[in-house]
Design goal:
With 246 residues, the chain is mainly α. Helix content is 67%, strand content 0%. The chain contains nine helices and no strands. The longest helix is centred in the N-terminal third of the chain and has 29 residues. It starts with 7 loop residues before the first helix and ends in a 14-residue tail after the last helix.
């Protein structure tokens, strides 16, 4: 059976809108939480909870259209996994997705700023630098790509929305960096001088750490999850029911 993808323009629109909505929730919930309480733990709980819930819903909503990536590294992981079989995005699509995601993140950040009576774009003064924070981004992003790629390779893609939302929520709490794990949204967050902002000078270090973590996550998924293992686990008389090439 041949799967027909929606036109590229529609997929890019879905990625831009989805990433904008995600960034708006990340930034807006942070502004709201900071205004409601001075308790750091309560602020973080509210911000992380809203962000994880939004991500789960958005992946479920836009997944059938564009894949629901909202993250250039998730798109890069899909390109890497499908580069030989031709069933993933091409390099042209990878670049277009990344551009749409970044534009969406900037728009969503600006929208959140304006909703809370702030300038559309305000450079953040919140420096986030140092080896411990970069290591946190490696762990958060690496495990994110391991989750997405591992579920895809083991043909459990239907679990991705919930699994990604749960992991992002856990990573925000468990890593020193707060689990940004997304270059596009990281760039967007440089344009808000609010609770969730990051100084422009700190963005390159975070993005490089995220890219390194993504590479590790994709490599681990390829090592640990192989289609041949799935086929071997299915009884001989039921193998015709297993999707995928033989």
């Amino acid at each position: 059976m041949t799967t027909i993808s929606p036109p590229l323009g529609r997929r890019l629109a879905a990625e831009a809108v989805g990433t904008a909505a995600l960034a708006a929730v990340v930034v807006g919930s942070g502004v709201r939480a900071a205004a409601l309480t001075a308790d750091g733990g309560v602020r973080f709980l509210a911000n992380v909870g809203a962000s994880a819930l939004a991500l789960t819903v958005l992946i479920q909503l836009f997944g059938p259209v564009s894949g629901g990536h909202f993250n250039p590294l998730v798109t890069a992981g899909a390109w890497w996994a499908g580069r030989r079989g031709g069933d993933g995005p091409g390099l042209r699509e990878l670049g277009a997705y990344a551009a749409a995601q970044t534009a969406g993140a900037v728009l969503g950040t600006g929208l959140a700023n304006v909703m809370f009576e702030r300038p559309f774009a305000e450079p953040s003064g919140q420096a986030r630098d140092g080896g411990a924070l970069w290591l946190g981004e490696v762990v958060a992003t690496g495990t994110l790509l391991l989750v997405v790629s591992g579920l895809d390779r083991s043909r459990r893609g239907g679990l991705v929305p919930a699994a990604v939302g749960l992991w992002v929520g856990a990573a925000c709490w468990a890593t020193s960096s707060g689990g940004f794990a997304n270059p596009a949204v990281t760039v967007g967050r440089a344009l808000t001088d609010s609770y969730t902002g990051i100084a422009a000078g700190s963005v390159p270090g975070f993005v490089l750490a995220q890219a390194a973590g993504a590479a590790v996550g994709v490599a681990l998924a390829a090592l640990l999850f192989r289609p041949s293992d799935l086929t071997a686990a299915v009884p001989e008389d039921a193998r015709d029911l297993v999707p995928g090439p033989r």
